[in-house]
């Protein structure tokens, strides 16, 4: 998209480029920045931007908005990772098709360095002295050549999980109290929302109505339609929302939430770092203390379960059942078990395909009712594991809901990592310990 080039950089942009020149960037004559196409956002009118290549082939975008950068304390108090100004600038960059891995924003005496891929503020300084101590050493050209940005420490998983849990609790309480809803109903609503966003980030599911458009939906007053469209697409086609009670209650919750409250909630949701949407983060964020401790203990003491618990050859592997007790082994071990089984089934299917290409006859399938490796494509492995191979016993409905959530999240990640996006997700085979019978395997 074309942008208008100003006659000369502003004083703020000139200061940024001057500092970078002293840090070894070799800019020579200071280049003239472009004016960002803000799509009618008056608050960003006159925002300057300039793309500078980094040593690792990435790009640093220098952005100077017309106003001072915000104090981030209020955003952090709301468990958000970005300020609204950051969100509007990133949305304008995306809408304009401007690439860049990192964004250096400068305004007034403040400077913020944003990891664009994760949508996370790496460093925020409020004075020139602080920027000289904490920010600009990272942007020294020699330091960048040694990987200063890629190796800069990000938030640990436990902190990301705690912040996501607190954000969810904050908005669950606000919406639930206004509608007089039980906490379990709101848990189901936000579990679906987090799963839907994870699927969107990973590129799994319908391409239209991406969560990347949420900032635009907030600005355009179309949030309700945006969320309802995501619900219909990801529940009806991709089966990301499981359980009939949730399928009935969530549309009702959406219709009941006041427009203003829903818009505020989604505006805040758009400011969460994308790094928070991962199966491991969900497992830590929404587990109770006992499950958290168990997951930590088994993650450092137990070997990964999965294919080793089953006969690892051909059809016998596909027809194996690896029962899992969440109360004894924890969430992290469940994810490791799923990975091991899905990878083993995929490899079995690949081996079978290779054998057929060589003209070899597959072995006889004695159980005519069982699914044979020849009928199972490599991309169907995660679906098969969820439907048939990995029944999960949980001690309570809440633990069962968490197990379903993290299994679906892991299935999204597994599919995305292997380029498979065409399959709906199977119903996770999770049951509560007090139930006397297992769910029927193969149920969609």
Top keywords for this entry?
tt1808, chain A, alpha/beta, globular, 3-stranded parallel sheet, 9 strands, 17 helices, 6-stranded mixed sheet, 9% strand, 444 residues, 49% helix, disordered C terminus, single chain
How would you characterize this protein structure?
The protein is of the alpha/beta class and 444 residues long. The protein has 3 domains: 11-145, Alpha-Beta Complex (tt1808, chain A); 157-276; 284-360 and 370-432, no CATH class. Helix content is 49%, strand content 9%. It contains 17 helices and 9 strands. It has helices at residues 11-25, 73-77, 84-95, 128-135, 141-145, 157-179, 183-201, 214-220, 223-236, 244-256, 259-269, 279-285, 289-301, 314-318, 326-357, 381-389, 397-417, and strands spanning 34-35, 48-53, 59-64, 102-107, 110-115, 120-125, 324-325, 392-394, 430-432. The chain has a 6-stranded mixed beta sheet with strand order 1-2-3-4-5-6. Helix 12 (279-285) packs antiparallel against helix 17 (397-417) and helix 15 (326-357) packs parallel to helix 17 (397-417). The protein is globular. The model is unreliable at 364-374 and 436-444 (pLDDT under 50).
